[in-house]
Design goal:
The protein contains eight helices and 15 strands. The protein is of the alpha/beta class. The chain has a seven-stranded mixed sheet. Strands 10, 11, 12, 13, 14 and 15 form a six-stranded antiparallel sheet that branches. Strands 3-4 form a two-stranded antiparallel sheet. The mean pLDDT is 96.
């Protein structure tokens, strides 16, 4: 089977590698253009591009996928199938129909739940206990195509979105290969989505991680997990932004007189902070232009004062 693969981040790489290892012919890899990345804003290739180059596969990085030239290029390869995995751009009908069997997408949720750009982040932020991979035939809607195959995965209590993404990327490759095997032998079934059960996972922005200390302890804890490593949860300590990468639940449903955000204790264990319904222990932090550090290491050379209220800019 001759396949055009479209993907951009680390999540898509295991699916690409699985296709190659299973003997599928990858005639073209389409990925996002190289972008500035990191503190130095150095232009970097996407993880999918790096993988494609390592296998000697042709790479195409269009800025615009909505003109006829893009669909025409895809059509010129006479591919049997397009496979997408977190490509990051919405394809036109001309592009979706440019191969024999259309387009199959590897989506990181159990559809119709969490349609949209950020299903992994939103699942953890919302406190979900499980999620999974869905392969689907792509149509013109936002993740509304027919469901093909699914696999579930548990979300552990302390799992970060980075850890979940790694597990889901591997699971996505397994689900994809099973989907294509069924497509090849004619046993693949299509199930229409129940739109009444749909929910959406809007794009994550840099300010998504802003902590409101008046919220419930568990909500803040889930926000920290669901934005680690990017974009990171954050607050302000004496006007300086402080990113928070890990924390632990200390207590919930506890009435305290202190204003939410108040630091009530600082120790090697962490920064004990008042929330809307209890206490949260902040364990790993990073100030701007500084290294990410455990609190116990940070306080060896810096002060964190008790009774300071976090959140004020």
């Amino acid at each position: 089977m001759k396949i055009i693969f479209m993907g951009t981040p680390d999540f898509a790489v295991p699916s690409l590698k699985a296709l190659i290892s299973e003997g599928y012919e990858i005639c073209l890899v389409v990925t996002q253009p190289d972008r500035p990345k990191g503190r130095g804003n150095k232009v970097a290739m996407s993880p999918v591009k790096e993988a494609a180059i390592s296998f000697g596969i042709e790479v195409f990085q269009p800025e615009n996928v909505k003109n006829g030239d893009f669909a025409g290029k895809l059509r010129s390869y006479n591919a049997d199938l397009i496979v997408t995995a977190a490509y990051g751009k919405i394809l036109t009908e001309d592009a979706l129909t440019s191969s024999k069997f259309g387009c199959i997408n590897v989506h990181a949720s159990l559809l119709p739940k969490y349609r949209g750009a950020a299903p992994l982040w939103r699942a953890i932020i919302d406190g979900e206990k499980k999620t999974g991979i869905t392969t689907m035939f792509t149509d013109l809607g936002m993740d509304t195509g027919d469901i093909l195959e699914t696999d579930e995965i548990d979300i552990d209590e302390d799992m970060t979105v980075g850890e979940l993404s790694d597990k889901m990327a591997k699971l996505g490759a397994v689900t994809l290969i099973r989907t294509l095997e069924k497509l090849r032998d004619g046993t693949l079934k299509r199930t229409k989505q129940d739109d009444s059960k749909a929910s959406y996972a809007p794009k994550i922005e840099k300010n998504t991680g802003h902590i409101e200390w008046g919220r419930f302890t568990r909500e803040i804890y889930n926000l920290i997990r669901g934005t680690n490593p990017w974009p990171a949860a954050y607050t302000y300590y004496k006007g300086e932004r402080m990113k928070i990468f890990s924390a632990s639940l200390v207590s919930e449903n506890k009435t305290l007189k202190n204003k939410p955000g108040t630091i009530v204790d600082v120790s090697d264990d962490g920064i004990l902070t008042v929330t809307g319904d209890g206490l949260l222990l902040i364990k790993e932090i990073q100030f701007d232009s500084a290294k990410r550090m455990l609190v116990k290491d940070y306080i060896r050379g810096h002060r964190i004062d008790k009774n300071t209220i976090l959140g004020g800019i």
